[in-house]
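Box S2. Input/output pair 1.
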Amino acid sequence: MSQNIGQLLTRRAYRDPGLGAVYEPDSGRRFSYVEINARSNQVANALTETGVAKGDRVGLLLMNGCEFFETFFAVGKVGAVNVPLNWRLIPDELEFILSDAGATVLIYGEEFAENVAELRRRGGTTAITTWIQVGSAAPGGVVDYNHWMGAASADEPEAGASGDDLLFIMYTSGTTGLPKGVMHSHNTVLWATLTIAATSDFHQGDVYLNSLPMFHVGALSPVMSGVFGGATIILLKAFDPKLSWELIRDEKVTTTLMVPAMLQFMLAVRDEAEHDASTLRWCMSGAAPVPVSLIKAYEALEIEIHQVYGLTETGGPACLLTSADAMARAGSTGKAFYFTEVRVAREDGTDCDADESGEILVKGPHIMMGYWNRPDATAEAVVDGWLHTGDVATMDADGFVTIVDRVKDMLISGGENVYPAEIENVLLSNDKVADAGVIGIPSDKWGESPLAVIVASDDSLTADELIEFCTGKLAQFKTIRAVEFVAEIPRNPSGKILKRELREQYNYPAPG
């Protein structure tokens, strides 16, 4: 199978030219598929006129919006390689990624002009020769995006790549060290799109609300699946829980993706009288195990939560819990996607027994091509076609997978493995807890003991009350020994708790 992913947009524009493609609430702009494809063609032709050729890397420092959408497909059409950038990064971090990827063009939003100006001041630390700004008037030496693309032809460009040619390099969050560039080709992305379409409950004509940043695969893959399936995609610049309810009501949203913390925030602001959600069939949720209490809270609103498990390295999909099992298997992340194989294995590589904890291994045609310029890391991560995820899970006799935790987040207390996510799940079932993260702190007696970092929804909550709450709900060696109350728990853009930051901040010995 050899296809150009940029032409997914071309084909949808041909099939359904008048269908709404993109709505951008922040600006009020709406584009049909034929309109957004024409804009994407202009960007593609402008890239070619700028000198961008097959294999050249193009950095995208853009918030969710039409420009990200049209540019991503345009870069694919001409055979160049997208490098989506986390816009929360500081100049040093951006400089590392752009230099590592060898990007020659950077397209950025005006919101990031200050950081980009700093990168330009540093001179030749990157290979970038063309800087293109979206938004307000561009400064000297920078190309104005609207003028640049507006002057180019809207004619369909000839496909510049397909098959195993690279489509994007997406840098992992780097929670355990310097980020690595995950390489995905037109083929791996096509297979990711096909396996999502064959597994999940997406329909033609769906209205999909996207609130997560598209520099993360968890947001980018559903957007591409929406184009493949003929959906209207609402691109929210940044998550806003109240606005999300209003969009669900006014735009008749049928499906969305939100991480557990976002789902918690949504519940906190919902006005039953104002926020009709009758069109919302289901919400996919991932990045962390979804607490059963949260699933049940949404069940009461007649909204199914479909827990998903995936990684940048898999192009998104690994496991999904679908409608038929959403409540009966609440807490599980479901079975492997349609074109995906999943195993749970011991350290020696043998398969675990049913309900035995082990590392999740994933195999399929959507697995990454490898890490950019990191053959050593690639060889370590992918063995005999199986991606070693570093995540711990169990699989029952019917093939349903339940995530336990990250291998690197595991702590050992009194010789027993303790997975923080299990404790976090219990903590989040307390009505006074809005958010929770658990790490290990040193203990003279046990080696390590759990510490809970808590965002309280009720100021009356005390550490002793929380410790008492957990008693009887967890084995003694899993009981939290200390509590820290904070205003916010640090998370990366995909919603994962930055445990490394918590460990750096709270590294004192556990109480006796």
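Box S3. Input/output pair 2.
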Amino acid sequence: MATTTLGADAVFMLDGDDLSDFIDTVTITESADSLDVTTFGNGGHRKRGGLTDGTIAIGGVYDTTSSGPHDVIKPLIGTVVAFVWRPEGTGSGLPTVTGNVLVQNYVESSPVAEIVRWTAALEIDGDVTDGNQ
């Protein structure tokens, strides 16, 4: 039987700041370049994986506290900082993903009949490390 995990236990830290109380969505996309290594005599393209790349999209409910996303993320735009992602929360043996990201943008939106929300786009810089706590 498959094991499921409740997302509410997840932890996301950026530049040492735990933003978990302000985040309700994290999407990590990792990829690799596709390199064509086809040579004479092949009837189809031959492929090899190249450099890895990826993005992280985070978002949640706007909060005006000094430890909230506006005050923490917005000043980081254009800089490379460390991130920590713990999809199952904090605890011995649970998975953790770490690395560095370029903070590309921070967006706030205010729909007239909804709560103010924010999103941020992060681009992975270098290698990502998967491990256990």
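Caption for Box S3: The longest strand covers residues 117-132. The chain has a mean pLDDT of 94.
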